[in-house]
Specification:
Elements lengths: L1 E6 L4 H11 L5 E4 L1 H7 L2 H9 L4 E8 L3 H11 L3 E5 L4 H14 L2 E5 L6 H10 L4 E5 L2 H4 L6 H10 L4 E5 L4 H9 L4 E4 L1 H4 L4 H14 L1
The structure holds ligand LJD2ZHX5.
């Protein structure tokens, strides 16, 4: 099980600084969608250059022009690129095909999907690397989480790795770990804390313990 740090509300310099604090406790750094919107793929390039030993995920949440966008993110240094599960099958297949060509991975974000089990089964057949259940900020605001959806994808996905994101905190991490996802994504649960290093260290400890 890997720990991914999601960076959403920072600029490039702040991102580099946050990663410096928690580098030893994380496996993947996510350049979040708001950062890509503000800074472009330069943010992906800067983080990969600063931390070449960490995997970098570009949270593009691709909806169309998938092959092209995966190619550009890959050129910037992304190891994993995200596409939305609601995208057309053709777009998902295009993303997978380009990622394979580039030696990269595709994570499908299931945000906004109603039939989680049905779509996860289809996506699993397309050869995506990760299927990620995700409660975005707007639904977190009304108290939702993705813990039940994680159980759902765990029960139907046979090939892809599973991931979970959305409002995970130190206090809720054990519940997530119990469902055994391959990747746990944490943003504000680390970046919003005064002692980011201590929280990330504790999270890594819990993940290693299982
Ligand atoms: O993908 C995300 C969100 O849509 C904003 O881009 C976040 O990275 C993801 O939700 C993880 O962040 P937290 O919810 O703060 O843990």
């Amino acid at each position: 099980m890997k720990l991914q740090l999601a960076l959403d509300l920072v600029n490039i310099q702040e991102a580099i600084q946050v990663v410096k604090e928690v580098e030893e406790f994380i496996d993947v750094v996510e350049i979040g969608t708001p950062v890509v919107i503000n800074e472009g793929l330069h943010a992906v390039k800067a983080i990969k250059e600063a931390y070449p030993s960490l995997e970098v995920l570009a949270d593009l949440k691709i909806m169309d022009a998938a092959g092209y966008e995966v190619m550009k993110a890959s050129e910037a240094g992304a190891d994993i690129v995200t596409i939305l599960g609601v995208a057309e099958d053709m777009s998902i297949k295009g993303a997978v095909s380009e990622a394979k060509k580039q030696g990269k991975q595709i994570l499908v974000d299931m945000i906004g999907i109603k039939d989680i089990a049905g779509r996860a089964k289809e996506l699993d057949e397309f050869g995506v690397d990760y299927i990620c259940v995700h409660t975005g900020y707007d639904l977190q605001a009304i108290g939702k989480n993705s813990f039940e959806d994680l159980q759902t994808i765990k029960s139907v996905v046979k090939n892809a790795k599973t991931a979970v994101a959305g409002g995970i905190k130190l206090s809720t991490l054990q519940e997530v770990i119990n469902a055994k996802p391959d990747l746990v994504i944490v943003g504000g649960g680390i970046t919003g804390q005064d002692d980011k290093k201590a929280v990330a260290a504790e999270m890594q400890k819990l993940i290693k313990k299982g």
